[in-house]
Amino acid sequence: MSGRSNDMYLTREQERILSGERGAAKELAMTILAKVGEALGADSLVPIKSAHVLAHYSSLHEAGIEVLEKFSSSGGRFAVPTTVDPASVDLENWKSFGIPEEYAEKQFRLCTAFAKLGGIPCWSCAQYQVCNFPKAGETVAWAESNSVVFANSLIGCRTNKITSGLDIACAIMGMTPRFGMLLDENRVAQVAFRSAIDRPTDLDYRSLGYYIGRHSGSRVPVLDGLPKKVSSDELKHLGAAAAAGGPVTMIHYVGITPGSGSLKSASGGERVETFDVGRKELDEVESDLNQSEEKPDLVALGVPHLSVYELGQLAKFLEGKKLKGGTRMYAYTSSQAYDLLERTGVKREIERSGARLTHSTDAEISPLKRLGFEVVMTNSAKLAEIVSSEGAVKIRYKPVAEIVEEVTS
Amino acid sequence: MTKVISFMGRVLLEGRAKGEALVSRRAFTFAHGVEPSTGVVTDLRSDLSGENVREKVLFFPFGKGSTTGAAWFLETVRLGNGPAAVLTQTAEPMIVTGAILGEMLYGRKIPVMTDFPPTMAEILRTGDPVTVETKRREVMVSREG
Known about the structure:
The complex is a heterodimer of chains A (409) and B (145).
Chain A: H1 12-18, H2 24-39, E1 45-47, E2 51-53, H3 57-72, E3 82-84, H4 101-116, E4 141-142, H5 145-155, H6 166-173, E5 175-177, E6 191-195, H7 202-216, E7 221-224, H8 232-245, E8 252-253, H9 263-266, E9 273-277, H10 279-289, E10 298-301, H11 308-318, E11 328-333, H12 335-344, H13 346-352, E12 356-359, E13 375-378, H14 381-390, E14 394-397, H15 400-407
Parallel strand pairs in A: 2-3, 2-4, 6-7, 6-9, 7-8, 10-11, 10-13, 11-12, 13-14
Antiparallel strand pairs in A: 1-5
Helix pairs in contact in A: 2-6, 3-4, 5-8, 7-8, 7-10, 8-14, 11-13
Chain B: E1 2-8, E2 10-13, E3 16-23, E4 57-60, H1 69-78, E5 85-88, H2 93-106, E6 112-114, H3 119-123, E7 129-133, E8 138-144
Parallel strand pairs in B: 3-4, 4-5, 5-6
Antiparallel strand pairs in B: 1-8, 2-6, 3-7, 7-8
Helix pairs in contact in B: 1-2
């Protein structure tokens, strides 16, 4: 007896693919889907509308290049629209950011393989704001934890947090194993958070998300008490922080998430453990993530990528101000938003202050230490969590208004 | 006298393994959390910070962090620094995917089991000699005393 919990159902066509009758790339993809699906207790494979995959060198390493090139060199093609998370370098201006050539070369191998597979080169971790927007009820297979929370919580579609390797396999087959967040019973809230923050700042939304991530464990959270005017950008950052603080893949936002009109309906009528989150809790998160009071050598804004609207706001913040010496400021966004900001003149407004706009990459996956940065200031809880957990670079975690106040004159 | 404590779990990837337990009581991730070229846990927020996962029977309750977890796990395996087995309380797809790719690409078999009773986290200690035997869905811990 194998001890396995179940065998996954495969159609006759899927069996054929598995035995190599449809080529090497599909055979490899189907093998990964079948094995992962079976291990995780999936009963079958279901079709997806889109995929979002990972192809940045800093996390994929040599092994990840090997996986992607194995697919691209054996005739693989994505079967559904497939977008991609940011690269480890600005794909256009990498030289001017001091990226060593041999490092960029590794990233370009991943870019080449991704292009060969027929992907949409958006290189953004907020792809749902630029070029990959499913409709409610659809199933997708997205990597990138913040996108997964956004998809499940705000768009109302269904996705698991698809990890690297599995992501490419899903995109090639246009299907994903049916388990976890694809099933109704796993989408019910099991822990509740009640927030009563008066006029939250940009940092408050992120700290609140991080608090939820830290205290949910592997349970699905529901959040009540957000201001009515909360924007999708603010929820993007809240969700990203939650997914950085714990294994969160969905948050029921009361009154916002489709089908979650109240705490009760989100939890299926069950009583669940409830956390009240006030100023004290947010201050705790802030002092936990803020590790230094030293002068920053980099201000990094945009983990996840800032939207066109957010960058417009940043331009207003920076109006008439100049960065003080010794500090750089990078604002990270998609190449689509970058082009738009270039055409509308907002890029010039931002850069007049000495700050730089950078696209197709993001701070947490770029080689910050290698570029010589030691103290990084940010309002991103996700960046703070990742960087501080590595310990190589110190983080100062502050609201954007305080950051601009401190580093400009 | 050596006492053997046994825990039953659900098998995600088959195999057998023997090694010293490395036990975390917090969410764990390989992504930005384990240095693939050494196997050392670099995550300062982990209670295993500074320990080495190489050839250990790694236990943690559930995963966290970036979806690149499988890639970091795979690179660790590629460089010969992977754990002997991974045991969790909640199934962690990133570990499962990384371990499957590790076997497909580099021929290293790493058994993965999950859904252990909550008491396991309290009883199992870092350094315990552990045998993982997925055929019997069992993990055996030897304890002196």
